[in-house]
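Researcher: Before we compare anything, I want clean individual predictions. No alignment, no superposition, just each chain on its own. First chain goes here; please echo the sequence and then give the structure tokens.
Model: Echoing the first chain and its structure:
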Amino acid sequence: MKIVVLDGYCLNHGDISWQPLAELGETELYERTPYELIVPRMGDASIMITNKCRIDRAIIDALPALKYIGVLATGYDNIDTAYCKERGIAVANIPAYSTESVVQSFFGLLIELYSGIGAHAETVRNGDWCKAKDYCYYIRQTHELFGKTLGIIGFGRIGRRIGEVAAAFGMQVLAYARNRRYEEKGFRYVTLDELYAEADVISLNCPLTKENAGMINADSISKMKKSAVIINTARGGLVNEADLAEALNSGRIMGAALDVLATEPAREDNPLLQAKNTVITPHTAWATVEARSRLMLIARDNLAAYLEGRELNRV
């Protein structure tokens, strides 16, 4: 059995081991694979491991030996899963490996928006404190999380955990979800319009669908407080980026922090790159070494289960 890892770089920069997968079979590793090299690199291998390679009908038809696709991520919209099912190809993803890492990144982004720790530290590095007339200075207003209202759109594992940590900061928690799985104390379910109107902080934690694409737009922003901030650690396509940039530049809302954009890597003409009061990180909320190590072990377990005739994390 031959295992081909098509695009392993995002998972492993050399700081974790591929040994868990390699123990299951001959493993061929590629850091990145362009679309036109997928078929020649796979050859007659039956096991494909990929993160973001586009696996469509044409690729699947060109790989008659393919039996299993292991996705090195939670999302699998880059794979034609319906055709895989038709062809009898198993597909497995990696759920719930990065919850704590994304929650930590969410609060890092929020605290940067509210406290400007990184921005102020950069002024010190640039020598501004050495030149200051007073013992302290601030380059903009800072704010407390305590007493603020957090509105979470998408109340699954990550959204719920963000709510738990927010409560520890003394925040009030609102939740919007299509499926209300959790009925615990400490938060309140609301409609989207209620969430937009009441929240000081809006967190996007839902999957991207045809129905919610561009849900953060001029209309939804018009329902928010001028002091609101938006944080997106989910999918870039949830945001109409031109509308958000206009709202930030005009002062219609106070700020935004984004770990994801609609097109990645970012395009140089993306209006959010130069928008006011905006923090953008390069899709790294999930990528702590602990989360990536968990991902590797779950990928191994998924493949081992398939080889043993069991189903684990099948999509």
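Researcher: Okay. Second chain, same rules.
Model: Second chain and its structure:
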Amino acid sequence: MKSQVFFTPYTTYDPTALSAIAKKLFEKVVEAEAFAFAEEVPIKVTFGEKGNTTFLGPDCFEGIIDALEERGVKTRFMDSNVLYRGSRTTREKHLETAKEHGFTRLPITIADGHHGEETYEVPIQGTYYDSVILGKAYEPFRQFVVLAHFKGHSQAGFGGAMKQLAMGFASRSGKMAQHAGIRPWVRESKCITCGTCLDYCDHGAITIGEYAAIDPQKCVGCAACIAGCPTGAIVNDWSGENFIEKLAEYAYGAQKDRQMIYVNYLLNITELCDCVGEPLEIIADNIGVLASSDGVAIDKACLDLLQASEGSTLFEDGRTALKHAAKLGMGSLDYELIEV
């Protein structure tokens, strides 16, 4: 049976109009799935890196918040800390950035704590993982509304609903596992032996001599030391293999045993993702908004629409993630696109 993906074409960027469209599509999914809401259903969003100008602002999401509140459903914004050094590396900075970007209507929860230390594991039967490591605050909830900006990504091909699950639900250590599966290392020339990293490491893996040193036998790969280092001396190796398939397995683990409503905004399409802290060039025309209960189908529909619109194979590498996720049973590659 094909998954249903609801779609409204929209070629400009008017947050008020987008809010109304998203609400309408959200209601279509609720009706189609006979969705019975829990007392509280969080909204998974990305707040955008400071300096980025093409991330989706909170005004685009007002209609969906209204739809939940009209049903008496409590909600909040949720995300987890990023792995790289930026404006969302720790909870304090993350909250500050979210509020600067206008996300003030709802409470905000950073799911993996101050610097990624609050986690839990979900067992899966994947090719690369037996379990995935997610932010602890996600654990109590069985339903989510996942709002994603569909755009490019340097390693994943594209970022959409699946990336919102894989990176957005993962703790810092989960992100580390997807990107590299190794431990952080120290650039000796940048280390000032200040000892700040010792305060961030809960596992006694770091010692200070002529420079900081990380014991690979004790390091658990949580990457908290990266968040704490004031000079950027502690870094990741981004050369891990099979990143796209690993992302698919994390997406599968994040939605396992949960009900999700996905809304993808196929607008402000850039080559790189919203984690880049600078203005990005828009590389394709705006297409519209999509909604579904199937995270694989909605991302595939976005990619198909984009490539058909542009007459190209833009972001084609991302199909690897779609195929791997479908193989795991996360969702379907076959969908019915229903224009609303």
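Researcher: What stands out in the second chain?
Model: The radius of gyration is 20 Å. Additionally, The longest strand covers residues 259-266.
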